[in-house]
């Protein structure tokens, strides 16, 4: 299985947090793993994306040294391998890791060390996506993220993204960031249609996004759905997260099946292993149970993820074969339950 939409800071487990606190010399208010987890997992009463994003504070506070960043990426790859993934794109915003004096370049170098060691030790492929952030006073930081992405493109970094509170900071105000990415040939993915409507996704498409994070609100715009299909724009859907942030209020309104019926290249992802308290296998199982999707449909979703990955044609061929094998094992396991 493949996860294309996975945030580093929302996916560390309590053991990782304790270890990082020790490494950084930070005294945590509590050292009980369950209490730490409770601090990180989204509240069932969460009402919006802004609240959900508050759950990253603990891990972000620790991801401020090169040592902790390297460790976190490495441990996440270990976790992904244990969960049966064969490829993942891990994303984070370098500008959120500068509190102790690191530069964005140093942050990415540390993450790449963790990535390279993780690939070596756990045998799965991983690339990094660098997130620009939705704020109104950070244009220079966002521009620097694009420059750093260009510097490490093809060396473990595969794209830039735009993340943060979409409702508070509209996509349209970030045009110059993506014009710079376009000039530097850095591939673009953008979180859109999550906490804002279809217009946000139209802007993302105009900015050259090859994939859209979530894209839920495309359901309100038939022309947009046609555009997504024609341009083969991949949607990185994250079922549990989309329900938790109340992007979709009712399970039965989740638009994945409608998108599939429209021929849109839907992929399924976790968003955040810890904050959303999930795994990719769980997401597939939830979808299968909730919408009665056939095994072939699930496999098609997994293969969409391969097609949407920032990999060579050769690597994609290998992954598709791997997915065929892993899926048959997994589906066999599901049918026994
Ligand atoms: Zn996300």
SSE topology:
Elements: E1 2-7, H1 14-24, H2 33-40, H3 49-53, H4 57-62, H5 66-82, E2 87-92, H6 104-122, E3 125-134, H7 139-152, E4 157-164, H8 175-183, E5 188-192, H9 198-206, E6 209-214, H10 222-230, E7 234-237, H11 239-244, H12 256-261, E8 266-268, H13 280-291, H14 295-308, H15 313-336
Describe the structure.
The protein has 337 residues and is α/β, with parallel strands linked by helices. The protein has one domain: TIM Barrel, CATH 3.20.20.140. Helices cover 50% and strands 14% of the residues. The strands form two sheets. Strands 1-2-3-4 form a four-stranded parallel sheet, with helices on both faces. Helix 9 links the parallel strand 5 and strand 6. Helix 1 runs antiparallel to helix 5, helix 5 packs parallel to helix 6 and helix 7 runs parallel beside helix 8. The protein is globular and about 50 Å long. The two termini are 20 Å apart. It binds zinc ion. The site of zinc ion has 6 residues, from strand 1.
Brief description of this entry?
By secondary structure, this protein is of the alpha/beta class.
Keywords for this structure?
337 residues, TIM Barrel, alpha/beta, four-stranded parallel β-sheet, binds zinc ion, 14% strand
Number of strands: 8
Q: Tell me the count of domains.
A: 1
Note the total helix count.
15
In which range does the helix fraction lie? 40-55%
Element pattern in H and E: EHHHHHEHEHEHEHEHEHHEHHH
């Amino acid at each position: 299985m493949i996860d294309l939409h996975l945030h580093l800071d929302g996916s560390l487990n309590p053991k990782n947090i304790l270890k990082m606190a020790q490494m950084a010399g930070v005294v945590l208010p509590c050292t009980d793993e369950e209490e730490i987890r409770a601090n990180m997992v989204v509240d069932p009463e969460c009402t919006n994306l802004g609240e959900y994003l508050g759950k990253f504070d603990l891990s972000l506070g620790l991801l401020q040294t090169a040592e902790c960043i390297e460790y976190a990426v490495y441990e996440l790859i270990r976790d992904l391998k244990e969960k049966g993934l064969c490829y993942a794109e891990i994303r984070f915003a370098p500008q959120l890791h500068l509190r102790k004096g690191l530069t964005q370049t140093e942050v990415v170098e540390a993450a790449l060390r963790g990535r390279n060691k993780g690939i070596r030790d756990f045998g799965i492929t991983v690339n990094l996506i660098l997130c620009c952030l939705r704020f109104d006073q950070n244009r220079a930081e966002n521009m620097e993220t694009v420059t750093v992405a260009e510097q490490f493109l093809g060396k473990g970094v595969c794209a830039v993204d735009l993340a943060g509170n979409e409702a508070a900071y509209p996509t349209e105000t970030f045009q110059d960031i993506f014009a710079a990415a376009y000039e530097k040939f850095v591939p673009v993915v953008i979180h859109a249609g999550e906490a804002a409507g279809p217009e946000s996704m139209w802007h993302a498409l105009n900015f050259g996004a090859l994939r859209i994070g979530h894209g839920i609100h495309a359901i309100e715009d038939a022309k947009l759905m046609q555009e997504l299909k024609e341009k083969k724009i991949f949607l990185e859907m994250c079922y549990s997260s989309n329900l938790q942030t109340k992007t979709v209020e009712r399970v039965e309104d989740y638009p994945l099946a409608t998108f599939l019926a429209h021929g849109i290249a839907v992929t399924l992802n976790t968003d955040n292993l810890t904050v959303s308290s999930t795994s990719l296998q769980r997401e597939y199982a939830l979808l299968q149970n909730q919408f009665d999707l056939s095994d072939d449909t699930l496999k098609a979703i997994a293969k969409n993820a391969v097609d949407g990955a920032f990999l060579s044609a050769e690597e994609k061929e290998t992954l598709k074969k791997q997915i065929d094998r892993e899926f048959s094992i997994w589906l066999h396991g599901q049918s026994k339950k």
